[in-house]
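Budget justification aside, the reviewers requested a transparent look at the raw inputs and outputs of the sequence design task funded under Objective 1. We therefore reproduce one unedited record. The lines immediately below are the structure tokens for a 177-residue chain.
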């Protein structure tokens, strides 16, 4: 396996299987699953520890943008903003904390976009079912995770959640995507 970037579109089914079997990719997928579990259990303090200090958590409005810093986003959190968001979600004074939805999420269809010695970028599909006040809402998205690999512990360097309906009116979530 080389460390040169590869694009998902140029791969055959066989080469995709080889990439998915790569231990670096396995580590990245396991971290994404751990993140999903923490979010569904509302363990937000532990969740934010999965991120590198320079990481961004982004939910863009424009599904095609890559320039998150210069476009309008629903969420564009650096470490400081993630900490503030977690505080609001856990202290009980915000509506998001008092009346938070219960969630169950499925993350699947992992596609390794780039595999390097110290970093893996994955694309995946995520479906979140949220239950609140007798109502179920479904949030579907394509998610990109850039995972920084290291011996002390793998961490998320970037998470981009591209909701399939991001350009429509999206209700307030009251939970993290």
């Amino acid at each position: 396996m080389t460390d040169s970037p590869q694009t998902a579109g140029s791969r055959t089914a066989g080469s995709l299987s080889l990439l998915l079997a790569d231990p670096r990719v396995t580590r990245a997928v396991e971290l994404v699953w751990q993140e999903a579990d923490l979010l569904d259990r509302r363990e937000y303090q532990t969740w934010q520890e999965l991120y590198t200090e320079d990481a961004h958590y982004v939910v863009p409005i424009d599904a095609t943008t890559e320039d998150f810093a210069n476009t309008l986003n629903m969420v564009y959190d650096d470490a400081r903003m993630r900490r503030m968001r977690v505080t609001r979600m856990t202290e009980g004074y915000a509506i998001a904390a008092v009346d938070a939805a219960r969630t169950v999420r499925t993350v699947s269809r992992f596609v390794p976009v780039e595999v390097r010695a110290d970093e893996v970028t994955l694309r995946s599909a995520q479906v979140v079912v949220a239950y609140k006040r007798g109502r179920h809402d479904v949030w579907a998205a394509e998610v990109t995770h850039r995972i920084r690999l290291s011996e002390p512990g793998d961490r998320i360097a970037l998470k981009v959640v591209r909701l399939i309906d991001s350009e429509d009116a999206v209700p307030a979530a009251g939970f993290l995507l």
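Residues 23-40 form the longest helix (18 residues). The chain has a mean pLDDT of 87. Computational costs for records of this kind are itemized in the attached budget.
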